[in-house]
Design brief:
homodimer, 5-stranded mixed sheet, BirA Bifunctional Protein, domain 2, 12 helices, alpha+beta, Rossmann fold, 2 domains, 5-stranded mixed beta barrel
Amino acid sequence: MRQSTLFTKTRREAPSDEVSRNAQLLIRAGFVHKEMAGVYDYLPLGHRTLQKIIQVIREEMNELGAHELFLTALQDPMVWQKSGRWSDDVIDVWFKTKLQNESEIGLATTHEEPLTNVMRDHINSYKDLPCSAYQFQTKFRNELRAKSGIMRGREFVMKDLYSFCKDKEEHDAFYAKAAEAYKTIFVRLGIGDKTYFTYASGGSFSKYSHEFQTVCDAGEDTIYIDEAKGIAVNEEVYNDPEVFVASGLDKESLVQVKAAEVGNIFTLGEKFSDALSLTYTTAEGNSQNVFMGSYGIGPGRVMGTIVELLSDEKGIVWPESVAPFRYHLVSLAGNDSAVSEYADSLYEALTKAGQETLYDDRDLRAGEKFADSDLMGMPWRIVVGKNAVASGELELVNRATGEVTKITREELLAR
Amino acid sequence: MRQSTLFTKTRREAPSDEVSRNAQLLIRAGFVHKEMAGVYDYLPLGHRTLQKIIQVIREEMNELGAHELFLTALQDPMVWQKSGRWSDDVIDVWFKTKLQNESEIGLATTHEEPLTNVMRDHINSYKDLPCSAYQFQTKFRNELRAKSGIMRGREFVMKDLYSFCKDKEEHDAFYAKAAEAYKTIFVRLGIGDKTYFTYASGGSFSKYSHEFQTVCDAGEDTIYIDEAKGIAVNEEVYNDPEVFVASGLDKESLVQVKAAEVGNIFTLGEKFSDALSLTYTTAEGNSQNVFMGSYGIGPGRVMGTIVELLSDEKGIVWPESVAPFRYHLVSLAGNDSAVSEYADSLYEALTKAGQETLYDDRDLRAGEKFADSDLMGMPWRIVVGKNAVASGELELVNRATGEVTKITREELLAR
């Protein structure tokens, strides 16, 4: 993308009412716009980044054999009354609104009930199980406070996967596969080494649920980590002796840290299938409740966590898998048409080779361009100036380390 | 996709409360689920179809040089009060809700105001213009009645593009390019020959807006078409003599038809830039309002219109560009392992060749499989039975025409 066509501008200062570091940097870099507290627009670079995260998650969901769908935000109270979760005392973050006929409807905080209801039309027999479905859908949560930038929004995209199995045994096998998929996802997103498989409180059908917690000062949770094992215990179950039996961890060797919950997986059991009558006929001809699980990741929260975790005093540092562009090609042409022609040609060649490149073709001073480039955080900066054209050697700068490598055009294109 | 893994089931009858033909067929085929009137979930096949439509539109928007972004559904009244559109008397389909502190917020019916406000941070100078941005975002409209299936929803995904220009001249050039892009889109989506560039009522900055109307009995609009020219006049401006001057049409040669509005393009002029103070500095140093346009397409409405237009008594007929899968591979293996191995191998080969294939590997009678296949509407059905394995010849059935061609495996893979 030619930066001259990109309408977003960087800014030196974040808005004074923005208290979270992730949103401060993302607003300054032109990735997001704050609509109101906890409600952020994704501008072109932010949208590209979010889509990169979504695509990694999508690939791993498909790998699990789950099918993608898209449920609605508007919610009929009927299905929620069946599970008892329509009440504001049970879900205290409902946004509710009204149809023209004055009947009340809700905005989805989550989708267990509506999907369980959909599945009543499709699951009849044990032959229909197991199956699983996921979506990337906007959730609305009327949080009392929203001060964590894009890490906790009143409106945010969530990937939610739901599994439907015959029994606990079949569910446990899927649950284990889903946990592995989650580990793969966070490794691919560049935060694998900081993300812990964490024991947290469960429900009626399993003593514990599991969270994926990324160690990060801006996180809202406190967890106890075993760094060597990559496993942790959430504070909420830390005083339960049985969690150490279940996790195989030794309480003595754990370290207390702040962390952000980037994913969670949960055994729902028969809670929703019982409430909404989602049953199947067994091979023996009996009727049985379907055994369910749910598995969430917030792509926006992941994006915010990456910014909190990897940024430095100059700005954002995106991992390659997440960056809106791999390369930031910075032309220092000024009025030198030989340099701008060289840079144009290199941009065309990179794009043709499928290398996603943001090309700073703007008429600005080098200092401004470098400051913008550092703030926006593409993994690799390529600098093209008079020297490059004369010597045939380009400067390739690693955003994370600052390391500068001399490289020829041919080497770059073959990279 | 192996159909045995697809949890959705077809059904012989649509729900009795569903009055629209598009939703009846889409529900029967397992593409959508009705959450409530005007609110439909997209199940896996429906989601794939919608994404195909979205991808065609996206490619043409990118071709225009527009950048994709994603604005929020939750709306701050402040920006809408500036344009006077917060009032329910002006926009009578608002859904409104409240934050925990009791302050009222809205659900986006459209995004002119919030995007104009975002652009205040980014457009300063004539050098920043022209630019354009688009999104695929959910709109919420509190329609009094919603009886047109997915063609008019209370919640629906819309592609909305907004352009920002220096003046009317620059705008007119972009507007003409956008109109061409729209024509290309509807041709690519398989409804080009039924879709008319239609003169409709305008606003303060242009006498007419333009709609893209697809001739279709289920449409809600009445238009007057010139079939040879592919141009039409909406009923709402039909009695204005000047529209015939502007369109170059002869009133005598027009035919009255029902049509569905699948797209519209609109000159907004300075209406929103003036209300929200979106100005730029001209080359001469003066402050000037930005000149805007908006350009909408409802992918769900397009999908519903295609169903209305192309379905037959057996079910849906998808154009190739829109179909969730190009091929429906129907195995009639029964207990014959030679047939099922042949079909398995063909499915693998088609998938490897990048040919999107739905593989009916279920253990069902041939009649049921064919009925499902006709209802679901993939463009090409491949039938694999004992004869195919023995003779090496497959039956390729064209869903639209019913025409059967004999084809070898090699010919199919080379297709």
